[in-house]
Amino acid sequence: MQNKIAKYRKEAGLSQQDLADLIAVSRKTISTVETARFTPSVIIALKIAKHFNTSVESLFVLDKND
Amino acid sequence: MSNYDIKSEEKFMGQNAWFSLFMGVTLLIISVYPMLNQTSAPLLFLGTAAFLGSFFMFVIRGGFTWRMKYHLTYKDEYLNTIDTIAYKHVVLGLLFSMGGVYLLSDTLALEVSHSMMATFYLAVMSLIYGVSILWQSKD
């Protein structure tokens, strides 16, 4: 599953640590979600989407293999 | 969960991984070296001193982590996940090392005491836990 979190984050001028602090997760969570090494829970996905004022579907995109 | 708690957990996990590596290497030396040189007493003393020294060093550097109300699992989702995966790696590593020892048991049995084998298994578990956490934590 791919995602556009890094794009949204950079557009908002936030570092990984800033975003992690805002949604109360570790920086490693943000780092590994952005690089698609870790699939977050629905709760974290919703928190990120809410923070960027967008939908989960616009942040996360399913691969052909998913 | 406050940001302070999460940062404490991240810090604790990093310290914990390195401590596991140090402890694993120390235990490995304690368990393997006497087998090779047919001696144990001086090295056991040194090994115990090194283990206690590294333990207190990490406890002090880790900032006395009992203050962060750490209970059994990490609360952060990713840290909790890699911790669980690391334990799975530990179990697999332990099974493989026990299998290896089982296959070699006839040649090992006369020279190796139970305490040395127990120390060896602990060393393997500590090393695998530390390496697994560090490997999974890389950016």
Distinctive features:
heterodimer; A: 66 residues; mainly alpha; 434 Repressor (Amino-terminal Domain); two-stranded antiparallel sheet; 5 helices; B: 139 residues; transmembrane (chain B)
Question: Mind explaining what this structure looks like?
Answer:
With 66 residues, chain A is mainly alpha-helical. Chain A is built from 5 helices and 2 strands, in the order E-H-H-H-H-H-E. Chain A has helices at residues 5-11, 16-23, 27-34, 42-51, 56-59, and strands spanning 2-3, 60-61. Chain A has a two-stranded antiparallel ribbon. Chain B has 139 residues and is mainly α. Chain B has one domain (3-137). Chain B has helices spanning 3-37, 41-61, 77-108, 114-137. The chains are: A mainly alpha (66), B mainly alpha (139). At the A-B interface, helix 3 of A face helix 1 and helix 3 of B.
How do you describe this structure in short?
With 66 residues, chain A is mainly alpha-helical. Chain A has one domain: lambda repressor-like DNA-binding domains (434 Repressor (Amino-terminal Domain), Orthogonal Bundle). Chain A has helices spanning 5-11, 16-23, 27-34, 42-51, 56-59, and strands at residues 2-3, 60-61.
SSE blueprint and pairings:
The complex is a heterodimer of chains A (66) and B (139).
Chain A: E1 2-3, H1 5-11, H2 16-23, H3 27-34, H4 42-51, H5 56-59, E2 60-61
Antiparallel strand pairs in A: 1-2
Helix pairs in contact in A: 2-3
Chain B: H1 3-37, H2 41-61, H3 77-108, H4 114-137
InterPro entries (chain A): Cro/C1-type_HTH, Lambda_DNA-bd_dom_sf
Protein name (chain A): Helix-turn-helix transcriptional regulator
Domain HTH cro/C1-type (chain A): 5-59
